[in-house]
Amino acid sequence: MSYLWVFFLGFIFSFVGSIPPGTLNVTVLQLALERQVKTAFRFALAVSIIEYPYAWIGVQFEYYISTSPVILENFQLIAALVMTLLGVSNLWPTGNPRGIARKFQESGFRRGILLSLLNPMAIPYWMGFTAYLKVQGWIDLGTVGLLHSYVFGTAVGTLALLSVLIFFSQRVAPYVQGSRWLKIIPGLILLGLGLYAWWQYFF
């Protein structure tokens, strides 16, 4: 298992997982639309930095949970269930981001750190994805180097997606702020992975 491969998996699933509109990417988009590009990049950098330890925590939780004999016996079933739930949760309708994200007016890096810390959904997300990738035999995090290559890929993937939003803010704003397709497509991908795992479990 190469460092580049685990980095790529972390990157691509982080990129896709950051697409659905939420507090963090909508905040970056708003900053870019207000022509606060430097502030938006500092915010994106802070978000990607927090993604690193949150992904690492998710991997560690997955490791400790997966060492249980009961979990090991039903690993394929659990992975299928987790991916299906992640897909359904992405497709479930939610309200527009609001609240604390609108209380900051002139902040970048510190704002990104705080909002990321208050948005720990990356932990269960990476628990589920890591378990799924292991079940499919697509990933092996048996060494410290492989683990950190994978986690680093998640941070870079988040930064890449937020940078795309900044660069193309004028074009993507109507989709991120008003279209459900950006939320539906990642949800369908996750649901498809879950259905594939169910198929493998039963057949």
Average pLDDT figure: 78
Shape: globular
Strand tally is 0
**What percent strand?**
under 5%
Q: What are the secondary-structure elements, in order, as H or E?
A: HHHHHHHHHH
Largest sheet: none
Summed up, the domain count is 1
Ranges where pLDDT stays below 50 over 5 or more residues in a row are 97-105
Give the fraction of residues assigned to helices.
Answer: over 70%
Structural class: mainly alpha
Round the Cα radius of gyration to an integer and report it: 17 Å
Give the terminus-to-terminus CA distance. Answer: 27 Å
Q: Care to give the gist of this entry?
A:
The protein has 203 residues and is an all-alpha fold. The protein has helices at residues 3-17, 23-33, 37-66, 69-73, 75-91, 109-117, 122-135, 144-167, 169-178, 181-202.
What can you tell me about this protein's structure?
- The chain is mainly α and 203 residues long.
- It has one domain (3-202).
- The chain contains ten helices and no strands.
- It has helices at 3-17, 23-33, 37-66, 69-73, 75-91, 109-117, 122-135, 144-167, 169-178, 181-202.
- Helix 3 runs parallel beside helix 6 (109-117) and helix 5 (75-91) crosses helix 7.
- The protein is globular, with a radius of gyration of 17 Å.
Topology (elements, then pairings):
Layout: H1 3-17, H2 23-33, H3 37-66, H4 69-73, H5 75-91, H6 109-117, H7 122-135, H8 144-167, H9 169-178, H10 181-202
Helix pairs in contact: 1-8, 2-3, 2-8, 2-9, 3-6, 3-7, 3-8, 5-7, 5-10, 8-9
